[in-house]
Fold these 3 entries.
Entry 1:
Amino acid sequence: MIWGRVWASRSASTHLTAIEMATRRQLLAGLLATSLVPRHSWADAGNPAFLSAAGLPGGGYALCGISDALDVVFRIPLPARGHAAAAHPARAEAVAFARRPGTFALVIDCRSGKVLAKLQAPADRHFYGHGAFSADGTRLYTTENDYEAAEGRIGIWDVNAGYRRVGDISSGGIGPHDIKRLPGTETLVIANGGIETHPDSGRSKLNLPTMRPNLSYIEDRQITEQIELDTKLHRNSIRHLAVSKTSSVAFAMQWQGDKIDAPLLGVHKRGQAPRLATAPADDWRAMQGYAGSVAFSADGEQIALTSPRGGIVQFYDQRDATLQQTLQMADACGVAPTQDKLVITSGTGTIQTLSGQTVQNDDLLWDNHLIPV
Amino acid sequence: MRLILALVALLPLPALADSTRSIVDEHILPGFAALAETTQTLQNTAAETCTRGDPLNTAYNAAFDAWITVSHLRFGPTEQEDRAFALAFWPDSRGATPKALSRLIANADPVAETADTYAEVSIAARGFFALEFLLYDAAFADQGDADYRCQLIQTITADIAAVSDAMQQDWQNDYAAKLIEPSADSPYRTPAEATQELFKALNTGLQFTSENRLGRPLGTFDKPRPNRAEARRSARSLRHVELSLTSLKSLALALAADAPDIQEKLDQRFTKAIDVAARVDDPSFAGVADPGTRIKVEALQSAVESIRQAVALDLGPRLGVSVGFNALDGD
């Protein structure tokens, strides 16, 4: 075992009720049935199944909604390059984050394209490009860099008060990047990438020899479990997360060094030891030390790991985290579950499902992440 | 000559291999040989005298020059066992180097008795930046016991020489061949992969100079950070920019050997940046808060950025190593 469980304290029971186990769509259906439907739902925005930021070939950037049929159902201009987005659980609202080290995020009404609110990072902070909503959609959580203190923070925003900032808490490490909520709970899981940056020096990495990434779980504003890599793997920056319906957390990593066959995927379940994925050295090498996104398939059977640098997508069996197959796809990065297992987007404008359905958008360069609505 | 170049351009793979061979022979191996030699001199000098000032400072400057000249070649033997960081722990945003040194001195820690044991201490207490504190910083002039400080200087220089020698040996005896002759067992399977490694070194070297060597002291107009300049205690900040530009220029021109138009453009932009650097009359960037000095340092950063642009938009595509929207993003 090359991983160590640093510390953990058990939290309140995570027993899930039937409704908590339901998917977001089922939950919405439930809301409809009980006439608790929000004022404006995602149906009013063309029923996107996914959100993705995009670059435009002539310059300029956009946030797009993509339907189950892989059609672009809306396209809203963004003032600068985006990264990821967060979709409100019920209302047709998306939070589009500027690319790191951006200091703003826009809350967009996806029906009209209107900016409903602008989130401004506090002084000496910037966003990392990811965020997550609470289950009821009343709180938004954002990963942030307190760059003078070199500490990761999670900003907390009151959605119903017009996305007013109401506080912040420690992320449990340096360089928090992705943040997800475990289904049916208010538990947040955070990928603390471990890399210190400061806007004065752009995106330069300031602490590679001493970096220590971790995976942190936050419940009720407290860090209740934290997983750290073995010191031999301290250069493996934990960046992106996917959460299964049964709360397995898949984490995608980026190797910050010269070694070229480091494993770039791990799977963790609360209270257990994490497991690193296994693949032949040549397959890790083909990823070029860089995983861009990670997703579970809709049936939970597979984990997809993209590498835009390698121009490939790897698929792992979630049971034992072993490599099953590899797909060649230039500049592939965004990936998300769909009814047909998995869908992948690329910087060349391609959207492709695992079964081979392909849509080419020549006027859109799909950015890093594909976010399920 | 023109005809030969045209023929070479029709044979991209052998051309890439030829350019890699010349970069190894003329850029990489001589650079590491100079590092091994000057760090050996530094060790020998410190063994004779550990008094601040000359001849120790001269030896320190010569060896540090040699390191900066090869410091962009961060792959293979340079990266192994964190050797590059063992020579140069910078940026040190948390002040780890002075803290680690003070702790050693306060405890007169016997770990400093030999270079072998010293290789186990915090990486922040090793290398040129640790040595710079001991040789130039007022706070370390009389801290603790003089004999211990002397031993620390001798051991740090011996460690620097040992790390440099290991790099040189590995480059000379092993890794140079791997880069020149890609194969299934080599870290590089094709000449294109070797070229990509060299291109990456050029790119990240330029990025480091622009964002760290210049960006950190510049800070923002409202909050300039002169205390964050690299090696400011020995007034080497500007010199590092100049040394890195000169070295990166030779790498860039060699990579562009088969593309005369791009080579000329790169030559012009590097020459311009080196000229701009020569007009910055502030070796430690202490004046970044002064508008007159600041504008010159900003102009230098712009000149380096214009090189980066030509490398990314012209050289990369010509070498076939340009990368996509997401591949380039790195997040």
Note: Chain B has twelve helices and no strands.
Entry 2:
Amino acid sequence: METNQAKVQEKNEAAVAPLIPAVDIIEDADGITLKADLPGVPRPGLAIDVEGETLTIEGRVDLGEPARMTDVHAEIRVARYKRSFALTRDLDAERIDAQLRNGVLTLRIPKREQAKPRRIAVQAQ
Amino acid sequence: MHPTFTASFPGELFPEFDAIQRRIGRLFGLGDPWPSSIRAGAFGAFPAINMGTTQEALEIYAFAPGLDPARIEVSVDKGLLTLAGERSRDLPDGRDIEVYASERFAGAFRRVISLPQDVDTAKVQASYRDGVLKIRVPKLEAALPRRIEVQELERSH
């Protein structure tokens, strides 16, 4: 009988497409807040990378399942999440703040100072 | 080794019908009439549920991130295990906000799982870690596999 352990390993292979986590993306005057659902991903299983202007979130699920478990029903069939986002120049990738709590990743991507909105005074002639 | 289960989806009026459909599908070797997509996790029912069995217990994993564990309702009644709760959409307040994506589930949820006959519903345990609610339903003592010792009898002449 196929054990769950073997199944998860099989699913972890790169050939299997990862799950796409659901996200909320909200912009305000100072930056962008991105929330991603990554249930089952512990802190060591999470990787956030910025390469050029691409932000990539990757997470590996670790449920600590008993080794001798046999799946009887599975809606989450892959133990890996991955999603990429294109950043724009006005965002400061150097100062991204990340928090993972109860399976929800919250990223705060601030805007560069010069990119923040400001009011331009119109001078009377 | 497939204990019967039904999974009711939010907003679905006739979960029993769904379960019957699945059973009929199995009988005719059609598999599940609605197989979950490989990406069902992102946009399917909330929370997504995985189930597995060991010799000792039925293990249920509900992928329910961002909840307050004190407010998750887990109950068992007449062989049905119900998970219920609510996840709020925590939008930051402020005047000048722009929402670009709003894919994460928000609102009340409820999922029902029909438990197999051989479990002990008095000993259900639930824990919450990394946004996954884990429910362990032990099998009844009588249902556990055990070995019966063969006694050797002295032959009396």
Note: Strands of chain A lie at 23-28, 31-37, 46-51, 54-60, 70-74, 80-86, 97-101, 104-110.
Entry 3:
Amino acid sequence: MKNGWEAVIGMEIHAQLSTETKIFCACPTSFGETPNSNTCPVCLGLPGALPVLNWRAVELGARAALALGLKINEVSIFARKNYFYPDLPKGYQISQYDKPFSSDGILTIMTAERDDQGRPIEWKPMTIRIVRLHLEEDAGKNVHEGLPEVDKFSYIDLNRAGTPLAEIVTAPDFRSSWQAYDYVNHVRRALQWVGASDADMEKGNLRCEANVSVRKIGETGFRPKVELKNLNSVRFMQKAIEYEINRQIEAYERGEEVVQETRLWDEKNNCTRVMRSKEEAHDYRYFPEPDLPPLIVSKEWIEKIKAEMPELPDAMRDRFIKDYGLSFADANQLVSEKSLAEFYEQTAKLSGSPRTSANFILSELLRELNNAGITVAESKITAEKMAELIKLRDEDKINNIQAKEVLAEMFRTGKSAHEVVKEKGFEQISDVATIEKLVEEVIEKNAKQVEDYRKGNQKIFGFFVGQVMKASQGKANPKVVNEVLKAKL
Amino acid sequence: MDVRKVAKLAHLEITEEEVAIYTPQMQKIVAYVEQLNELDTEKVEPAIGGLTPEGQATEAVRKEDKPHQTLGQDSAISQAPDAHAGYFRVPKVLS
């Protein structure tokens, strides 16, 4: 960042909760249905229709809140946020305002600045305040693509209207675009980990907005902030924030002012542009939703949800470092996704080799998974099969190159490691007596070279190793071959 | 009482004459409701959900997460003033 300036960034995330039905009616939340087919009087906003709270949305909201270090409030209130937009049939969104479902969160994330190639420089812990996580309904969708006279008309699909969302708001605690980037990734993984949300930005079930301002280091107040929208991936978000920080600093240095406004990320031109300025800012006139009672949860209920929570990724990462002697980078990568972390732990336990398991999973298995574009849970490889392979390698029954080949075949066919090793004839020969026999044959056939070697030509030792390996069709254990050759020559 | 602002928020167009008529009327309405503020409610719990037992807590009215029959596309758009290809159609809005 430019000398003397610092960025002040706050984040808002909307995550779709993974329910079967909408938050205030029984319409399914299924994606990709024909327009307006998943609708009923409640989500269409027809007169007289009344909302009833979906309890599953509350449970998932609670899991999300706990995964992010928030406190669940025993009493919370739904409120109407009033504005006009065609995708909002009631003319208001049911949300929460002064009494949100959860608040006062403290969250520790790992973050790193990046070098020119975008590689992390040094991971450090950072604590941020999460102001609130509240429950609300999503709006519908305006569609223009492939429809006639789009210069005159907007087309509305209300299938998404009423989908349950958790809105997660942080304090303005971030000081760089990468901190915001690492935060969103942290939240995304946490929500997936506890099953609260699919949190897939490409599918639109996780959306984020950034509030960005800058100030001179040492200033305590805030300058006008710009709200960034249309951030369709975490990377675009990071770029948009970076662009915005620089734009604002440059404006101030030219002696201009920064106005409070909403700007969109323009993917094509790699810049932000104005969406609406403060003059048109909304007055939402929040008031308590009279059609819904207060949302009351008991202490016992909160305790029950806490008891059902899985071990969270950061705790698991620290345990991997402590119990299995893994590096931070390796452990961190293993907990990037829940099924991978669980797969690793099972493999480590079954094989008794946590280090080899980590190396193999992170290098070989991850490459196969990435190439296929699937998670380990979706692959044909089980922890049992993986552990079998690790054992074969650890016992030197197969060498590294063979192990890689076996894994690729296991990945493709779902066969066990033993099956593949047998089919490929990879079983390594480590039996000393067998190797001694091979060595003796080689010595017998190559009398001249033996004489050379014994006269002091150490260089041709490799020749003998090669001959023995050839005689064993590549199956002899090179370590044993070396030992036997040295003894016999 | 800024009647112009209220009208703008409600997307209503009003004339200067109407502003002159509505302003005292609305002032009167607000003053009437304002009387409630004279009561001391310091020790009264807000009855946000109403005064019925169902209104006081959510515990009793939990909805299960099970899909029911929807209206379906045809019924959903049948009452719309304008529809096309299964969509509600409205005058163009800028996103």
Note: The mean pLDDT of chain A is 92.
